Amino acid sequence: MNSSILSGSCPSTNNNITTFPILDQFSLNVQVTHNPLQLPLESLFSMAARINKKRSFLFVSKLLGKHIPVNPYTSLLSGAALAVLLYEHLTEKTEETKVQITEWKREMVEGLIDPQQARQVYNMLLQESLSLPETIRFVGFAETATALGHSMYEMFADQASYIHTTREYVPAMHPDIQFEEEHSHAMAHRCYALDHEAFAGEGPIVLVDDEITTGKTTLNIIRDIQARYPRKQYVIASLLDWRTEADELRFAELEAELGITITPLSLLKGRIEVVGTPQLEPTQQDEQLFHPAVTLQTSTVADDFEQLHATSEDGEGKRSTASYVQHTGRFGMQSRHNGELRQEISRIAERLRTQRTGERTLVMGTGEFMYIPMRIAAEMGEGVLYQSTTRSPIHTHPAPGYAVRSGAGYASPEDASVHNFIYNIAPGQYDEIFVLLERQMSEERMEPMLKVLGQLGCGHIHIVYCGLPEKTGDNEQ
């Protein structure tokens, strides 16, 4: 990469259009058309470039806890904010509810802007135990929105279910739905519902994604659900909605074709325009930033989690019998499971809190396994940030103000054919990092990830397995 390129990251606003320069090579114009909480754009995202013919830029969320470390309560609160918008949409508009919702919105804005307020606002909303007049089914999109969908679903005390799509392949299980993500580096999505209640009934289905660009993925999943589990109402919930008029017309056409309604809810809706063409070279891993870690410690908390035993098959045809955690949402869950999961999370958070040795701690989720590590991070005390590994290939650049300043890639322990990345960890940034993995893989599968973790320049790395290892005597096929 040309080190003389400046970040040019400071946005400017003119005539209701905010321009985000990216690497001083090109820029993105954003015109906001709907901002229900009146959140400042800089509290929602920053920008990065990527080497991709279809889309040269990436909105790097400041809420999700994926590429940028966040206060875990900030991320949880973003899902809660979408839950309040859904509650406002589906409940009767009495004077009392209008006043209550207005007050919730005011407090949510404070929490989303100020991390110091996020915990108090999130816990307040959780205690409200929102209730809807009919059963609601929530579906989160893997991998980025698995925690967002879960935190939205959890706000409702009863009559709710949650499942997230997965890129996992479990040969012995038949997916309830399966669809393709057309503009993705990981296309196949499946939903494995153990009790098949994830889509049953006639109540609304809420599809949750972090960002809607064209909406084609959403239309794919709606068409697939409607063919098997017909109903009248869908809601698409997202942090950002960038659909054009032509995209919205496709939604209207599907509504007319299937006789349904599709209601969009988002924290920000607008139009985007790319100006200029980036001239990017493939980025190298930032090895000059990495130094050997002092210690790497491995432990397990599988005894505190209810386990689900299922054999997966990766992209190379190799199988694993390492167990999954039961209540991640991957295999579906109901409101009645929430209390049990909260108890599991609290027990584990207390155990890990006692292992902390410093004041600057990062808890890292892995891939689709985001929500449980995020909730554990939230209960591990002060000075804890959260982020997750990701499949997203992003152009890194070490300039101040650029969203993704460093990164390293490795073969995923669960599937060596999948490349994962860890972004934005600088040497000396943390006293320790707790890496929470859902499944306990073999040493051979873990080696690429452990090598990268050992080069991050952090004093202490804790590897925490939440699932049981492969059964003794089982061999990969």
TrEMBL record:
InterPro entries: PRTase-like (IPR029057), PRTase_2 (IPR041688), PRTase_dom (IPR000836), TRSP_dom (IPR022537), UCP020967 (IPR011214). Residues 44-271 form the Orotate phosphoribosyltransferase-like domain. It comes from the Bacteria. SUPFAM superfamilies: PRTase-like. Residues 328-453 form the TRSP domain. This is Phosphoribosyltransferase.
